[in-house]
Amino acid sequence: MKSFLIDRYTKRGELRLGEGPEPELRDNDVMVEIHAAGVNPLDNKIRDGEFKLILPYRLPLALGNDVAGIVVRVGAKVRQFKAGDAVYARPAQDRIGTFAEYIAIDEADLAMKPSNLTMEEAASIPLVALTAWQALVERANVQKGHKVLILAGSGGVGTIAIQLAKHLGAHVATTASTANIALVKSLGADVVIDYKNDDFERVLQGYDVVLNSLEKETLEKSLRVLKPGGKLISISGPPDPDFARQNGSGWLLQLVMRLLSFGIRRQSKRRRISYSFLFMTANGRQLGKITSLIEAGVIRPVLDRVFPFERTNEALDYVETGRAKGKVVVTVK
Predict the structure, then answer these.
(1) Are 205 and 179 a contacting pair, CB within 8 Å?
(2) Is-cis flag, bond preceding 60, omega within 30?
(3) What phi and psi values does residue 301 have, to the nearest 5 degrees?
(4) Where in the chain is the domain with CATH 3.90.180.10?
(5) Model pTM score
(6) Could you give the residue range(s) of every CATH 3.40.50.720 domain in the chain?
(7) CA 215 vs CA 40, 152, 170, 221, 235: distances in Å
(8) How far apart are CA 194 and CA 167, in angstroms?
(9) Architecture of 2-125+301-331 per CATH?
(10) E strand or H helix at 175, and its extent?
(11) How many alpha carbons lie under 13 Å from residue 232 in its C-beta half-sphere?
(12) Which UniProt keywords apply (predicted)?
């Protein structure tokens, strides 16, 4: 089996194309022949070693966090899937490796592929859609009439989060460059702040929820947009103590995360705002609900570029530029 591997953590290092055996198939697993794999900023961060403290992978590691493909075998206890099914998933964080020809995934993390999407389109969905779902539905409990700010609206998470927030009945604001204003408006954004010309924290106020995917400075600006009782959810950090406990981190790592997030948690508390860090988790049940929204035409994928498998390193480099509109995908088969 061919796969793109990390041999050691290196900032902007190249993955190695290697040969190896197919992954082990456990009783609750589904073996998927990979047709397409989504490329995410998370992949670059793992490669660079940014998550090596909280995600202690054993190297060499096959990279990749989104998959769409065909079931070829199932474990003895699998009941929901069979050979020939078209499926998609975000594998569990300790079992990633979609830049490869095959992957074994727990059936609880898998869902049937939306019937109206190609393999490439489907591969663009799981990680970003589950992130949006877990932020807006599970954590923020967005309701009709809520005001929601989604930062970086033209990115992978942003393009899906705008559509989901609108479906939930929210008034949606977002930030984008001049070139991407038409795109985010077409996805349903009610207010678009051109970040090259305006400061969003001076224009917006009284918001219920902010979904942040940008740097520390933007995170702190977000506090000025939220009303007391509002929720600031960040997918770019810093990790907080709740995440450390949920991740099963030891006491030392819990202390480190407490210190890293101390400043933003203190500022949030002063303004009576709740701050939380979200590192999305694999969830086939939630992905099944997202499938229904896609098939109903509520959510559509936004694909920027599709690369062939052998150019996976180029795809990672392109994602790292931060210029992609929506998602970048690698075609494996």
Answers:
(1) no
(2) yes
(3) -75, 155
(4) 2-125+301-331
(5) 0.96
(6) 127-277
(7) 17, 11, 25, 10, 10
(8) 23
(9) Alpha-Beta Complex (3.90)
(10) strand 171-176
(11) 31
(12) Oxidoreductase, Plasmid
DSSP code at position 124: T
Average pLDDT of the chain?
Answer: 95
Residue that wins the pLDDT comparison between 172 and 241: 172
Pick the residue with more confidence: 232 or 243?
232
Length of the chain: 333
Phi, psi (deg, nearest 5) at residue 317: -65, -40
CA gap 237, 220 in Å, rounded: 12
**Token reading at 56:** 């202690």
Count of H-run helices and E-run strands, the chain: 12, 16
Cα 8-129-85 angle, rounded to 5 deg: 85
Listed residue (70, 244, 273, 66) closest to 157, CA to CA = 66
Residues 123-149: tens digit of each pLDDT: 999 999 999 999 999 999 999 999 999
Strand order in the sheet with 61-62: 16-19, 2-6, 61-62
Task: Report the 10 Å Cβ neighbour count for 190.
Answer: 15
Helix, strand, coil % in the chain, rounded to nearest 5: 35, 25, 40
| Domain 127-277, CATH class in plain words | alpha beta
